[in-house]
């Protein structure tokens, strides 16, 4: 088994900070979405409080680890774990952003009611935005090669898989013409 990154002690300040900066930048991308939301429905206080606690605690864990404890080798940005993780993160981010764009533009100004999302990965799954987010954070977990990053990916997947199932069931009940071949969150599988 390859040695853990944390065990590596030889590093130059420039390359070590390069690996950290990329991981921090990947994590900070999560701050973009709230600024893109238009309107929206009220959220129960309990749900808001749980989400706030999760995000606050997770943000603390990720930033504390990357700023204080992470030690990456000089060549970490060329390590296959980092490269594959970064590529997954980038693909997931692009899927997530594109899917959110489709969802935000389902209604024209002044329209109300619900519509079936079409285009992009929505042709294959109900929760394309959640799929992108899970891929994104699994990539981050791999690129950071940390327990904190892995835990973030795992718990994000657990939460979003549950929400995706609920959304899928709602669409099936709400729309008679909802595509029956669409999977819940993972194209062609689940």
Automatic annotation (TrEMBL):
Sorted UniProt keywords: Differentiation, Endoplasmic reticulum, Lipid metabolism, Membrane, Microsome, NADP, Oxidoreductase, Sexual differentiation, Transmembrane, Transmembrane helix
Entry's localization field: Endoplasmic reticulum membrane; Microsome membrane
Any matching Pfam family: Steroid_dh
GO biological process, one term: cell differentiation
Membrane spanning stretches: 43-61, 81-98
Record flagged with keyword Endoplasmic reticulum: yes
Annotated catalysed reactions: 5alpha-pregnane-3,20-dione + NADP(+) = progesterone + NADPH + H(+); 17beta-hydroxy-5alpha-androstan-3-one + NADP(+) = testosterone + NADPH + H(+)
Primary residence: endoplasmic reticulum
EC code: 1.3.1.22
Alphabetized InterPro entries for the sequence: 3-oxo-5_a-steroid_4-DH_C, SRD5A/TECR
GO cellular component, one term: endoplasmic reticulum membrane
UniProt family annotation: Belongs to the steroid 5-alpha reductase family.
Protein name: 3-oxo-5alpha-steroid 4-dehydrogenase (NADP(+))
Species, as recorded: Mustela putorius furo
Lineage: Eukaryota, Metazoa, Chordata, Craniata, Vertebrata
